[in-house]
């Protein structure tokens, strides 16, 4: 069996050897990739795709697929080892794997990755998606904010307020939760700005996923207001407005595993059979 480097065009001719969640980014051709195929006399049996992150020393495992009739023969492991060797020669120190699962599906993937030298996968993000109707009747959905708070469309943010929020980065909120990342994708009329006594102290940013689904992209309330359920009340207001409008019947919400209060909130209230529950796992392998 030969292990050959593949071009994006060659990958496009073998869609069954690329995970669906990786196919769009590969076709876009924006990222620098390493792709390797396992080939014998009958054609390609499997393929691996690695994305190279410039200047960070970390590469990302985007896809690894072995055709059903060729599994459990060590092909996946050989593909990973071949990719690891190429990454080492380019100076990469870590290979990151992220994968989505439902209902305990992580066990098989975790076992494979650990057999290939990865640390045990850890939960990274918990995702819930489904119809807004599944939330009707829940008490948290009626939460209201005190009179000192004001909720306005995100598009009402003034230039002075924008400057203030940019200057407050790192001290008031982590950079990863900046409301100005991917700003072009944000819906300014449905996203919400939270003010306290006239000053911005939080946001709930929404983005269209598809014609029927809205993504609750980023929610944050300044630290001094977090212990009084202000974030949940802001979230509830966003849901109420979407339900009243009726434009999007479905929503998607995610929370970082480290955000224990919101994770517990999600585990308690997002349990309807109509709600899809998924977890994104992360694992690393040292290449040094």
From TrEMBL:
UniProt-listed Enzyme Commission number(s): 2.3.1.-
Q: Where is the N-acetyltransferase domain?
A: 1-146
The record's Pfam families line, in alphabetical order, gives:
Acetyltransf_1 (PF00583)
Which leading EC class covers this enzyme? transferase
Q: Which UniProt keywords apply?
A: Acyltransferase, Transferase
- Gene Ontology MF term list: acyltransferase activity
Q: What does UniProt give as the signal peptide span? A: none
The protein's matches in InterPro entries, at most eight in alphabetical order, are given as: Acyl_CoA_acyltransferase (IPR016181), Bact_Acetyltransf (IPR050832), GNAT_dom (IPR000182)
Q: Which domain of life is it from?
A: Bacteria
Q: Does the keyword Acyltransferase apply?
A: yes
PROSITE patterns listed in its UniProt record: GNAT
Q: What is this protein called?
A: GNAT family N-acetyltransferase
Q: What organism is listed for this UniProt entry?
A: Paenibacillus aurantiacus
């Amino acid at each position: 069996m030969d292990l050959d480097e593949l071009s994006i065009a060659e990958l496009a001719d073998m869609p069954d050897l690329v995970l669906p969640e990786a196919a769009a980014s590969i076709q876009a051709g924006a990222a620098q990739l390493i792709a390797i195929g396992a080939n014998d006399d009958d054609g390609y049996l499997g393929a691996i795709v690695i994305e190279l992150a410039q200047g960070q020393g970390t590469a990302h495992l985007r896809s690894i697929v072995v055709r059903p009739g060729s599994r459990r023969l060590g092909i996946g492991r050989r593909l990973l080892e071949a990719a690891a060797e190429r990454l080492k020669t380019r100076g990469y120190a870590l290979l990151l794997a992220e994968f989505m699962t439902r209902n305990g599906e992580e066990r098989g993937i975790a076992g494979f990755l650990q057999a290939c030298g990865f640390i045990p996968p850890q939960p990274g993000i918990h995702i819930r998606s489904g119809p807004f109707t599944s939330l009707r009747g829940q008490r948290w959905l009626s939460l209201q904010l005190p009179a000192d708070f004001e909720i306005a469309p995100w598009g009402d943010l003034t230039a002075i307020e924008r400057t203030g929020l940019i200057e407050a980065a790192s001290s008031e909120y982590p950079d990863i939760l900046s409301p100005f990342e991917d700003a072009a994708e944000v819906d300014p009329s449905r996203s919400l700005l939270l003010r306290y006594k006239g000053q911005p102290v939080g946001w709930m940013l929404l983005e269209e996923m598809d014609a029927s689904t809205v993504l609750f992209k980023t929610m944050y309330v300044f630290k001094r207001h977090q212990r009084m359920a202000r974030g949940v009340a802001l979230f509830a207001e966003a849901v109420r407005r979407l339900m009243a409008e009726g434009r999007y019947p479905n929503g998607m919400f995610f929370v970082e595993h480290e955000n224990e209060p919101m994770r517990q909130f999600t585990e308690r209230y997002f349990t309807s059979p109509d709600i899809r529950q998924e977890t994104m796992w992360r694992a690393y392998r040292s290449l040094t």
